[in-house]
Amino acid sequence: MTDLVTLASRLAKETEGEALFDAASRGRYATDASIYQIMPLGVFVPKTARDVAIAIDIARDLQAPVLPRGGGSSQCGQTVGAALVIDTSKHLRQVLAFDRDALSVEVDPGLVLDHLNAWLKPHRLWYPVDVSTSAQATLGGMAGNNSCGSRSIAYGNMVHNVLGIDAWLADGSLLSFGPVAGLGAREREIADFVRGLAEAQRDEIESRWPTVMRRVGGYNLDIFHPRSERPYTDDGSVNLAHLLVGAEGTLAFTRSLKLKVCPLPRAKVLGVVNFPSFHAAMDAAQHIVKLAPSAVELVDRTMIELSRANPAFRPTIEAALIGAPQAILLVEFSGDDASALRRQLRALVDLMGDALRLPGSVVEVTDDASQKALWEVRKAGLNIMMSLKGDGKPVSFIEDCAVPLEHLAEYTDALTEVFRKHGSRGTWYAHASVGTLHVRPILDMRRDGATKMRAIADEAAALVHRFKGAYSGEHGDGLCRGEWIAWQFGPHLDAAFRAIKRRLDPAKLMNPGKIVDPPKMDDPRLLRFSPSYKTIALTPVFDWSAWNVQNDPATETLGAPGSGGDTTGGFAKAVEMCNNNGHCRQFDAGTMCPSYRVTRDEQHLTRGRANTLRLALSGQLGPDALTGDAVQAALDLCVGCKGCKRDCPTGVDMAKMKLEVQAQRRARHGVALKQRVFAQLPDYAGLASRLPWLFNLRDRVPGLARLSERVLGLSAGRRLPRFRRDTFWRQAPSLKLATRSELLDAARPVVLFVDTFNGHLESENAVAAALVLQAAGYAVHAARADNGHALCCGRTYLAAGMADEARAKARQLLDALLPFAQRGIAIIGLEPSCLLTLRDEMLAMGFGDDARTLAGEALLFEEFVAREARADRFHLMLRPSSRQILVHGHCHQKAFGAMPPVLEVLRLIPGAVPTLIDSSCCGMAGSFGYEASHHAVSMQMAELSLLPAVRAAPDALIVADGTSCRHQIADGAGRRALHVARVLADHLVLTASPSLRPWAATS
Ligand SMILES: Cc1cc2nc3c(=O)[nH]c(=O)nc-3n(C[C@H](O)[C@H](O)[C@H](O)COP(=O)(O)OP(=O)(O)OC[C@H]3O[C@@H](n4cnc5c(N)ncnc54)[C@H](O)[C@@H]3O)c2cc1C
Ligand code: SF4
Ligand code: SF4
User: Fold this and answer.
1) What is the CA 460 to chain-centroid distance, rounded?
2) pLDDT tens-digit readout, 363-387
3) How many whole angstroms separate alpha carbon 337 and alpha carbon 580?
4) Ligand 1 pocket check: which of 73, 94, 107 to mutate, most ligand atoms within 8 Å of Cβ?
5) Which of 62, 137, 377, 827 gives a 20 to 30 Å CA spacing to 180?
6) DSSP at 833
């Protein structure tokens, strides 16, 4: 037994890295994108390469196995094990050396592929192993798995593109693996040893080794007797580094990699071939590859339909379809000579029309943007498939078997029949060019899934054998395919693999149980979900019943909401939608996940949070863990931006989950004064606006800010929003707003939902909105509660976990607005987080159809204006503007796809050319950025892209619809940002009184 206390304390003492040994941290590293879960001994996050070396030494001293890890996006359980997991992705991510002439680059193992390619782009180069997980996959992990991209037919797999690897053996020695001709003494000994094995096994290699390019199972013993369709090196020489490629961290720990980079092709064209049957598509692949494409990728009927059902993908996929094809192949040609590419595309059209008798089946896509959009749809394939609700999930275990192209059609037909026999079905997609098709049958691992998995695996293996293919063709062996290595390669080659392992890692300390001595793939003790998986009993505050369903694996139809038997009313099943694919580990696209972008900690990642919640809800973190500190710590930096709701492929809505947990926690532990100060703002805003001198004292009297930091946790480094006497409500009488009865009689009625922030703190926005709508001919009514109070959506209470108060506020708002909504009158809001609460959280608060009716009419100001303008019902006289306009989107606007309307509305101003700032969350996020404990992280989030973009455009007009976004921009860049309503109002050729235009000096 490893002495874990000593292991943890020595790591903490002797290195600069982080030693994470608590249950929640270990739990977060107990899974990857596979079906498995094993608690690691502990987790180590090294700061430097030296830390890794020391950690390997300490682990060896204590006989603790070591498991190297990058993004943890492996699908077969490669990064799951009872070992010390060493995560290189946080700190070890530099480009170490670059030789433009030699076309080589040397990198740290934790560098992410997309980041390397961004670094190479100015040199017009790229690293062409373009895995679908390019935004998460680290080069160390890609080498560990011998990963392969969509364009492997043109560029090969990892093994074809690695020039050298420096790596530590378990004994602590650091060796340089590279071309055999230049090896040092120790490395040469290893090379001679492996050569000896390969020579001894020559006949076995010849008879048993799959000759397809997509073979990643076992160790690459064939470096000394090449069997890959594509040679591993350009000149046929042997490179010992290739022994480590695909070794899954079982032989050595990579310190750095030397990679072969390629010129970026100057041009690409795409032919989308539409097929009347899946079989025809599979059969055509072998002929199409003869035209020398750079990729041939499959999208089947189910995937086409799923893509069409997704509003983001529908226009793209529909533009590529001719009629209703059963499958399409995306055939890409790339190179430097555009006219040659057009000839290749023509050859494809001719091939389909003449030889394959499918004239008129090719959609030619030549512009870059359309090609990119189609590739995004293809890349999203697996993730789209994984969004199925219920316990039956598409399971990855035979998903990358590779067969020679001439057998592809027969193989897929036979496997489809196998699925049918076992009451399941699969969706097919991916790399037709190299005979690797991804397919996942739907299995329920909590019931009979493991038994069916074994049966299907047996039959799939027999098919692979029949067609002389490779059982493990892309995603590696891990826990899932390890037991098939001996089956695939036979006892002699399996013994040779063992000999390699013994030679490099005699004490079996490197990622044990992978490739050599693997467990049974269906051992229930290794499964994340097994028949013994249970969840705690919980009455949730929100309605999660939409997730509380079961599905039929054969038809994928869902049961009725609430019928799924979840002991937490569906909350646990919503959490379990996270399949650990790691898509949230992204930095450049979308919003998800701002806290991870700043800290790079698994704990502060959507995946890490979902895993923490899953462990708590299934009792694996001890009793009452859901309301305990570990869960609180994981959720602490979640800013509730809903980036995940939009960007996570399976729709994990951590913002709402956090609200649920906050409510459960407050019910148990009560509400702290700090939380009440923010939560109850809507209650005291009216009083504060009558006594602004008193409520604004904190920022006026020296010392009070410090005191508020000590007592209430309010950051002394922040100014608080200022209360004022001239609220919207006090100005309302001079605005000539419609009364309720006038509104109901009006020809063009709208209701303005004036929230606390725009009603009391930034009244200019609400005034501006009213003026703009009136100028466009609408009768505007500003709704209030029956008791005359301003309305509130309840969000501030929700954020503090005050569920009952939130529900009371929401009910009051619903009562006030429902009569209008029932008449089809638009309810227009200004603050994105408030208005969008009506379309989101309020639907899950038990108000039934009333809430749905209100949500159906609730629109942001810009959504309403854009809708009306599109229908030619919105006409304003606006002054032209030539000023640069930069727009920052509030996270909730982005999550609800409400940014295009902002730009549309700004374009109503003659001459305006608004540009969206490519930013994630501003970091303020309601009260988050005001809290002293979050101030620094909040500013770091803003500094990721928003504030630099604002500073870089000193003369631009900055538009931001969120109150907290505007505050953050003012605090961080000293610039005033405006709500879109104010920008429009400012450009009105005005009729209203100038006294109502306090912003007049802004343009
Ligand atoms: C949705 C989805 C799509 C995918 N698409 C593809 C695809 O198109 N092509 C493809 O090939 N794969 C694909 N994968 C699988 C996976 O993303 C890739 O294999 C990826 O390259 C793994 O990178 P990682 O950084 O996550 O590695 P990890 O999962 O962290 O590690 C992978 C292996 O490498 C080892 N390793 C990591 N770092 C080191 C090191 N420093 N030294 C030694 N060993 C190390 C690990 O121990 C492990 O065995 C996909 C996975 C998902 C979830
Ligand atoms: S939260 Fe979503 S994106 Fe992140 S790992 Fe889970 S499923 Fe993937
Ligand atoms: S709501 Fe935002 S911060 Fe929270 S997990 Fe999702 S993306 Fe991350």
Assistant:
1) 31
2) 999 999 999 999 888 877 777 777 8
3) 41
4) 73
5) 137
6) H
